[in-house]
Inverse folding.
């Protein structure tokens, strides 16, 4: 429900903060006092578009803020999570409009696009008048309302579960067929690439190994000459390092016998001689293994050249070449198995289609059973509201598919030999039809009437569907246009009845309707310092009687008017 509505610097309103109550909230006031301005302000925080001229003269921006109770509104909570908006005990919608026409929207102090504000608003308020929040005038809501009227939510959930499974399988089939088509086109290319890479058959790390071997073979003469010279220098030459170290070691042994302080030097010299001995053995062994192999050298150069060509074509490195080979190998193998994969998936689709078709058929049958019941109930209610001879019908249509070739590309269900297009809410396209006068043809509800008449039609439908409709707040802007007396009394009773299931806010000029209020507000226009300002205030019991009497008597409130007001309110 709407707890508070704050309006600042909007049109004729400088500042008002209205606390609404549950039940039936009635707004009255003189023509031009600003009643519709309040409804206009409410519509802005529900996502309506606006212009800069709504900002009060002399102000930089207008501000409208509504606080809504959130208790039990699971749908709104899901939407808050979806749009990453912080959840609070109350839902706060705020709209700021600048003199330049710029608009900023907030939900629980989180900035949001106007579209998100409207999405949330459409699940909070049904606003009837010259506004967009008329859910019954949107044909896409008719099916859901019919389902709620008949208590078909369980069947809808069952069908939707099968439908979602079916569409997911269709999505997989589309992806598989697309992949098959792509791979068929690329199969020849992949076959060529696989053979080209496999002909070289590169291995991870091979390139570095070959480059090292190439470097050695290309420098074999230099390596042989250098190792031979080192061997002579260290071991076999006239001045070989090894011989000199051995002589030095022997002399230090003699010195150590005389002075033990040479012991460490003697040992180090012996270690140096041993190290040189091991080093010469390595050099001699290396020298003996050096190859002069022009054929191997050419083989390595040719293989490295082929690897370089592969790198240029498939990624720039040997690792990427190998990775590419693995990838296309998998896809090439997949292309060989598409027929069996498609067959498996087709079997699963047919199994799920059977379940979905059964649920769709049962749901459609139940909907058709509801048609005469809801038609009779609405017509009876419209008679009470002064639209005698009204006709109301619910038309349910299905799309028969004459050709299901390429059925992997879309969801459909089947009853016997007939195939039908399937949608998230069933196979049915539901639309309300209406005729307000005897002798007129039934027409779509969206084209029936306007103003007070359409409001009464909405009121009748809302009364019938009041337990089913989940929107917490219903707003009726001047629902009493063109009615009086007995019909006004009936309208008031209907509004009162609706307020048992919804919070209702209604603007009216008729005392018969105002008398049913649970909470009564008056909108007044005042002039001060050459400025006009609209204000709204809640009436106490005595003020309420006087206001209803004014509606009965006019500006001069009579005792008879007061007496009549007390009777209407039930104070007598």
């Amino acid at each position: 429900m709407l707890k508070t509505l704050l309006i600042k610097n909007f049109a004729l309103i400088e500042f008002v903060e209205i606390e609404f109550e549950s039940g039936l909230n009635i707004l009255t006031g003189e023509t031009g006092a600003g009643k519709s301005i309040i409804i206009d302000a409410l519509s802005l925080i529900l996502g309506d578009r606006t212009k800069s001229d709504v900002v009060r003269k002399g102000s930089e921006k207008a501000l409208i803020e509504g606080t809504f109770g959130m208790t039990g509104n699971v749908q709104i909570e899901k939407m808050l999570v979806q749009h990453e908006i912080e959840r609070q005990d109350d839902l706060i919608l705020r709209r700021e409009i600048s003199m330049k026409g710029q608009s900023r929207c907030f939900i629980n102090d989180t900035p949001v696009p106007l579209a998100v504000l409207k999405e949330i608003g459409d699940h909070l308020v049904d606003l009837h008048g010259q506004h967009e929040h008329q859910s019954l005038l949107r044909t896409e809501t008719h099916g859901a309302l019919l389902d709620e009227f008949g208590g078909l939510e369980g069947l809808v959930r069952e069908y939707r579960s099968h439908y979602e499974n079916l569409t997911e399988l269709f999505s997989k089939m589309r992806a598989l067929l697309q992949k098959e088509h792509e791979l068929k086109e690329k199969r020849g290319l992949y076959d060529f690439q696989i053979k080209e890479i496999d002909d070289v058959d590169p291995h991870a790390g091979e390139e570095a190994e070959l480059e090292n071997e190439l470097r050695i073979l290309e420098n074999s003469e230099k390596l042989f000459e250098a190792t031979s010279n080192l061997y002579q220098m260290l071991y076999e030459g006239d001045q070989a390092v090894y011989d000199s170290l051995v002589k030095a070691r022997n002399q230090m042994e003699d010195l150590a016998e005389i002075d033990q302080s040479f012991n460490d030097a003697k040992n180090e010299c012996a270690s140096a001689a041993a190290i040189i001995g091991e080093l010469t053995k390595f050099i001699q062994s290396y020298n003996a293994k050096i190859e002069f192999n022009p054929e191997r050298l050419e083989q390595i150069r040719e293989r490295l050249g082929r690897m370089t060509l592969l790198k240029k074509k498939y990624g720039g490195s040997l690792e990427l070449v190998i990775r590419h080979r693995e990838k296309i190998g998998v896809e090439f193998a997949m292309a060989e198995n598409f027929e069996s994969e498609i067959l498996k998936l087709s079997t699963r689709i047919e199994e799920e289609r059977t379940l979905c078709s059964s649920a769709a058929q049962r749901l459609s049958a139940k909907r058709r059973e509801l048609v005469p019941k809801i038609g009779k109930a609405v017509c009876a209610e419209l008679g009470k509201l002064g639209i005698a001879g009204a006709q109301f019908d619910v038309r349910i249509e299905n799309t028969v598919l004459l050709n299901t070739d390429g059925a992997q590309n879309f969801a459909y269900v089947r009853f016997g030999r007939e195939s039908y297009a399937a949608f998230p809410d069933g196979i049915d396209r539901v639309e309300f039809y209406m005729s307000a006068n005897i002798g007129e043809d039934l027409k779509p509800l969206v084209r029936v009437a306007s103003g007070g008449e359409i409001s009464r039609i909405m009121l009748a439908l809302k009364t019938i569907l009041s337990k089913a409709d989940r929107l917490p707040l219903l707003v009726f802007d001047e629902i009493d246009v063109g009615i009086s007396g007995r019909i006004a009394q009936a309208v008031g009773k209907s509004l009162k009845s609706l307020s048992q299931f919804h919070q209702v806010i209604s603007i009216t000029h008729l005392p018969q309707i105002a008398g049913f209020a649970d909470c009564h507000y008056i909108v007044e226009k005042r002039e001060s310092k050459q400025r006009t300002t609209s204000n709204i205030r809640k009436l106490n019991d005595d003020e309420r009687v006087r206001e209803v009497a004014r509606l009965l008597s006019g500006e001069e409130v009579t005792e008879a008017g007061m007496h009549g007001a007390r009777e209407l309110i039930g104070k007598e």
